[in-house]
Amino acid sequence: MSDAPAILVRDLRKRYGTHEAVRGIDFEVARGEVFGLLGPNGAGKTTTVEILEGYRARSSGIVSVLGHDPGGRPRALRDRVGIVLQSGGMYRHVTVREAVAHWAAMYPHPRDVDEVIELAGLAESADKRTRQLSGGQARRMDFALALVGDPELVFLDEPTTGFDPAARRAAWDTVRALAELGKTVLLTTHYLDEAQALCDRVAIVKDGRIVTEGPPSALGVGSASRHTVTWRDEHGELQTRVTDAPTALLHQLTSAALARGDELRELSVTRPSLEDVYLELTAEEVTDVG
Ligand SMILES: Nc1ncnc2c1ncn2[C@@H]1O[C@H](COP(=O)(O)OP(=O)(O)OP(=O)(O)O)[C@@H](O)[C@H]1O
C-alpha cells in the first residue's frame, strides 16, 4: 500500500459553465516526492489543487489522494493532509504559540508545538500576537498551522508569492525540511527558480492541460540539444548562434581565433534552462501537445 502514489489524477476535467478550465489532466505524485504545478495565470493550477484538497468538485475524472477520493473532504483524509491557506487571518488576537497550539488540538496526533514553530522559522516570534507579524512571518505561521497536524501530504498554493528574497529562502528551507521528514508536497508556483530549487518533478500546465512533465533539470536539457554560443568577434561585435552541433561550431570558432593569434572573448555556451522551456511551451502561438 505504501508504494501506491500519494496522488493519482486521471483525465481530470472541470467546467465552469461553458468554460472548461481543466481539460483532461493526468499525473501521479509518489510518496515523499515534491511535485510542482507550473503555468501561466488561468492555466488551471488552483482549480486542480482545490479539487485535490476537496474544496472544489470535479466535473469528471478519477482523483485519489492518499487512497481516498477527496470529494466531500472525508475526515480520514483531513487528518493526514496539510493545507497552507492563503489568508490565515483567523488568529489575529492571539500569539503564534497559542494559535499553533489551538490548531494542534484539532488533530489526533499533532507534532510538538514548539518544534513546529522552530521548523517554520518562528522561534523568535512565538510570543508575538499574530497581527503584529510581517507578511513573511504570517506566511510562516500558515506553514506552522499546516504542519502541526503532522500531515503526510502538504499542499502549497503559491507559497512564496509576495515574499522578499530572504523570506522566500526561509520558506524554501521549510519545504526542504518537509521533504527531509518524508512528506509529500504538491506546490504551485510562478517562480521557475523555486520549482528548480524545490521540486523533484514538475508539470507545466497550459489551458487546462499538461504540456510537459519531468524533473526540472531534465526538462531544460532534454527538450532540445540546442545550445546557444555567444562570443565577441574580431571586430568587437557580440555574436550569438543557436546550434544543435556546438562541438563543430566551437571547433570552427577556436580554430579561426587561433589562426589569427586571438582570444575568443566572452565565450559562453548555454543549454536551454527550465525558463526557456517554460516560455517556449506556454507561448500563445504554440499549440498544445497531447
Ligand atoms: N469559481 C470559478 N468560476 C468560474 N470560473 C473560474 C472559477 N475559478 C476559476 N475559474 C476560471 O478557470 C480558469 C482556471 O483558473 P485557475 O484559478 O485554476 O488558474 P491558475 O492556473 O491557478 O491561475 P493563477 O496562476 O492565476 O492562480 C481561469 O480561466 C479562471 O478564470
From TrEMBL:
The chain positions of domain ABC transporter read 7-232
Q: Return one GO MF term.
A: ATP binding
Q: Topology versus the membrane, per the UniProt entry?
A: Peripheral membrane protein
Q: Matching Gene3D superfamilies, A to Z?
A: P-loop containing nucleotide triphosphate hydrolases
Keyword Ubl conjugation on this protein?
A: no
Q: Where in the cell is it found?
A: Cell membrane
Q: Which SUPFAM superfamilies does the record match to this protein?
A: P-loop containing nucleoside triphosphate hydrolases
Keywords linked to the UniProt accession: Antibiotic resistance, ATP-binding, Nucleotide-binding, Transport
Specify the domain of life of the species encoding this protein. Bacteria
* Pfam families recorded: ABC_tran (PF00005)
Q: Which PANTHER family match?
A: ABC TRANSPORTER ATP-BINDING PROTEIN, ABC TRANSPORTER ATP-BINDING PROTEIN NATA
Q: Which family does it belong to?
A: Belongs to the ABC transporter superfamily.
Name of protein: ABC transporter ATP-binding protein
